[in-house]
Amino acid sequence: MSISDRDLEALSAYLDGELSRKERERLEANIQADEELRNTLDQIQRTRTMMRSLPTIRAPRNYYLTPAMVGEKHKPRRAFPVLRLASVLATLLLVLLFFGDVFMLPNLVMAPARTMQFAESAVEEAEQLEVEAETIEGQLPEVPAEESVDRFEMEGEAAPPAAEAIISPSVEPAPGLEKLLATALPAPAEEMEDVIGGVAEPEEEPNLRIEMRDPVTLPDDELQPGINLRTVVRIAELFLIVVALSTGLAAFFLYRKYK
Amino acid sequence: MDEFALIQDAQQGDLDAFNRLILAYQDRVYSQAYRVLGESQAADDATQEAFISAYKKLRSFRGGSFRAWLLRIVTNACYDELRRRKRRPTTSLEPLDESGDEIESPHWIADPGELPEDNVVRAELGQAIQHCLDKLPTDFRVVVVLVDVQGMDYLEAASVIGKPLGTVKSRLARARSRMRECLQGFWELLPMSMRLGS
Q1: Could you tell me which of B67, B68, B77 has the C-alpha nearest to residue B37?
Q2: Contact residues on chain A for B154, CB-CB shorter than 8 A
Q3: Does A154 contact chain B (CB < 8 Å)?
Q4: Minimal Cβ distance to A75: which of B13, B30, B151
Q5: pLDDT > 50? residue B148
C-alpha cells in the first residue's frame, strides 16, 4: 500500500501536534496496523529533526538604518503638529478679529466722529448767536445790570447768570442757547422799551457777553484712536491671513510627503 | 526597553529604536532570506531591503507577532528577488558535469580546512540540507523554513504567507516528503541516528 498525500499530511501534522484528539487516535491506530506508515513516519521525523538542527545563520553584518537610507533628512514629523496648531489658532483669531471688525469696530470709530459733527453744529449756532447778540446789544437802552436782572426775574423768566453763557463742548449746548435767545435777545426794541420803561441809563454796559471756549476742537489724541484702531485691525488681519495660509500649506505638504 | 515600547517609539519615527529592533532580529531575518534564496549576497540584499521596507511600513503594524511581521516582509523580498532571477537568469556558480548538468553534491564548495571532524560533518550536512531546500518549489521551501528552521507554529506560518492553515499543512507535508527523498542521496553524510530508512 502506497502512502497518499493525505497520509503524509496527517503524519506531518501528527509530529507537530496539530491534529485533533480524534484524528490523532485514528492515525495512531493506523500506524500500529501499517508497517509502511510507521516507516514513513520515522523518516519524516528524522528529516524534521535534521531540519530543526540547522543553526540560525548569523547575519554577516549589522543592518542598521541611517536617515539617508530611509529618506529622512531630519525629523519633519515633529514640525507637523506645531504647524497645524499654528494654522488653526491663526484662523480662529482671524475669524474673531473679522467679526469684531464687522460688528463692533464701526461703533467704536463712529462715536468720536458723531460727537465732532454735533460739536461743529453747536459752534455754528453759537457764532450766529454771538453776532445777533452784538446786534441787539447796540439797539438796547443802557440799563444797569442789577436792575435789568431784577426785572427779568420779576417777569418770571430765567435770566442768564450775569448774562454770560459758557458754551462747553457738552452734547447739549443748543437748548441753553435757544433759551437764552428766547429770553434776552430776540425782543424787538419797542417791546424792550415798554418793559424797561423810564429806567435811567445805566452807568455800566450790561455784561451781555457770550464767552466762547473752543468747545468742539477735540484734542488729537482723542480723535486718533478710532483711526489707529482700524489700521491696526487691518494689519493684524493681514498678518493672520499670511500666518494661517503659510503654516497650513506647510503642514499639508509635510503630511503628504511623510505620511 | 521592551519590544513593544521600541516598536511604539519606532512608529513615532525614532530610528534608533528601530535599529535596536534590527539588532534583535537581523540573524533570524537574514537566516530566512538565506534559506529561501540559498545565496549569501542575495540574502544580504533582501535583508537590507526588508528592513528598509519594514521601517517605512511600520505604521501599518497593528500588533501581534513582530517576528512574523518581519519574516513576512523578508519573504516577500525573497519572492521579488526570485522573480527578478527568472526574468534575468544568471550563470550558476555550481560546477557542471560532463553532460552539462550541475553537480548535485555540494561537497566541492566545502572547505574543511582545520575544522574538527564534527564541525566538518555538521557543515556538510548543513550544505546538504540547503541543497535539498534549493531543489524545492519556492512555496514549499518558504513554509518548511518557517516551520522547521524558524520554529513557527502553523498559525504563525499562515500569517506570514497569508494563506489558510490547510495550505500550510499541505505544503509542509509535501516539502518534508521531498526533503526526505532528497536527503537519502546524502546517506553517508548523515549521522547514524539520522540515517533514513534504517
Answers
A1: B77
A2: 13, 16, 18
A3: no
A4: B13
A5: yes
**Chain B contact for A59 (CB, 8 A cutoff):** yes
Location of each CATH 1.10.1740.10 domain in chain B: 1-89
pLDDT of residue B106: 45
Residue intervals of chain B classified under CATH 1.10.10.10 are: 108-198
CATH architecture group of domain B108-198: Orthogonal Bundle (1.10)
Closest residue in B to A8 (Cα–Cα): B173
Kindly state the helix (H) or strand (E) to which residue B69 belongs, with its residue range: helix B66-87
* Pairwise CA distance, residues A4 & A60, whole Å: 42
Is domain B1-89 given the CATH code 3.40.50.1240 in the classification? no
Q: Which of A54-63, A152-161, A247-256, B114-123 has the highest mean pLDDT?
A: A54-63
Strand, helix or coil for residue A102: helix
Question: What's the pLDDT band for B99 if we cut at 50, 70, 90?
Answer: low
**Whether A46 contacts chain B with CB within 8 A:** yes
For residue B25, count other CB atoms closer than 10 A to its CB: 23
For residues A119-134, average pLDDT: 74
Residue of A55, A59, A69 with shortest CB distance to B47: A59
